[in-house]
C-alpha cells in the first residue's frame, strides 16, 4: 500500500511539473504576442502622421528600426513603448528555453544601418535610408564624406606595420584601398565608412551602374615609409 502511494505521488509530481512548464510556455508566448501588438501599434501611430516642419520631430531608435516621433502624438507613443517594454521584461522573467532554444532570453537590438535624417515622402514623415535619397543628394553627401574616410588615418604615424590593416572602400565602381589602424576615434571612422558604403550602394542602384564585384587590383601589403602607412601593389 505504501509502495502504491509512493508511486502515485511520484506520478502526480511529474504531471504537476509538466503542467507548470506548459503554463509557463503559454504565458511567455502570450506576453510576447501582447508586447509585439503594443510595438506595432506604436509604429503604426508614427507611420501615419502628416508632414510637419522637420525641426519639430525627433528620431527614436527601437530594437530593429528607426521611428519618427512628433510632440503631437509623443505622449501616446511613449505610453505604448513603455507597455511594450514592460511586457517584454515580464516575458523574459517567465522564459523557459526548450531543447533547441537559446538558454538566455535575447533582448539585444540588431545592428541598424545608418539613417539620413527625416524626410517628407508621399505626404508622410519617414526616417530616410540611403535609398530614400535623390541621386543629387547622394552625390553631394558622397563628395563630402569620401575624402573624410579616405584620409581619416592620413596623419597617424606609422612605426609598427603589424598594427595596420587594409580596408577597401567603394566610390562608384572604383575599389579604393586605405590603410587603417586602431585609434581612440576608430568608432567615428567606422560610422563614416558605413554611411559611405550605404550611399555608394544607393548610387549604384539608382544610376544603374554595372560594377564589378571583385577588386581587379588587390594590394599586396603595407609598409611604413617616412613615418606614414603606405599600401603596396
From TrEMBL:
Keywords: Signal. It comes from the Bacteria. Residues 1-19 form the signal peptide. PROSITE patterns: PROKAR_LIPOPROTEIN (PS51257). This is Lipoprotein.
Amino acid at each position: 500500500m505504501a509502495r502504491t502511494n509512493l508511486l502515485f505521488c511520484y506520478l502526480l509530481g511529474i504531471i504537476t511539473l509538466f503542467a507548470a512548464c506548459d503554463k509557463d510556455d503559454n504565458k511567455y508566448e502570450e506576453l510576447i504576442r501582447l508586447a509585439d501588438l503594443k510595438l506595432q501599434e506604436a509604429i503604426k501611430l508614427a507611420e501615419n502622421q502628416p508632414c510637419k516642419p522637420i525641426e519639430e520631430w525627433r528620431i527614436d531608435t527601437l530594437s530593429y528600426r528607426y521611428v519618427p516621433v512628433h510632440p503631437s502624438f509623443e505622449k501616446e507613443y511613449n505610453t505604448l513603448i513603455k507597455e511594450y517594454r514592460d511586457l517584454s521584461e515580464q516575458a523574459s522573467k517567465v522564459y523557459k528555453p526548450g531543447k533547441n532554444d537559446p538558454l538566455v532570453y535575447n533582448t539585444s537590438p540588431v545592428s541598424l544601418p545608418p539613417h539620413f535624417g527625416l524626410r517628407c515622402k508621399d505626404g508622410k514623415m519617414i526616417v530616410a535610408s540611403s535609398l530614400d535619397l535623390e541621386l543629387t543628394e547622394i552625390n553631394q553627401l558622397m563628395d563630402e564624406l569620401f575624402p573624410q574616410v579616405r584620409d581619416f588615418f592620413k596623419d597617424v604615424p606609422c612605426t609598427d606595420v603589424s598594427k595596420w590593416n587594409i580596408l577597401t572602400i567603394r566610390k562608384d565602381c572604383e575599389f579604393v584601398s586605405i590603410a587603417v589602424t586602431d585609434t581612440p576615434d576608430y568608432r567615428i571612422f567606422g560610422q563614416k565608412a558605413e554611411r559611405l558604403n550605404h550611399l555608394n550602394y544607393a548610387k549604384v542602384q539608382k544610376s544603374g551602374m554595372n560594377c564589378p564585384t571583385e577588386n581587379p587590383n588587390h594590394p599586396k601589403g603595407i609598409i611604413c615609409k617616412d613615418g606614414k602607412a603606405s599600401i603596396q601593389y
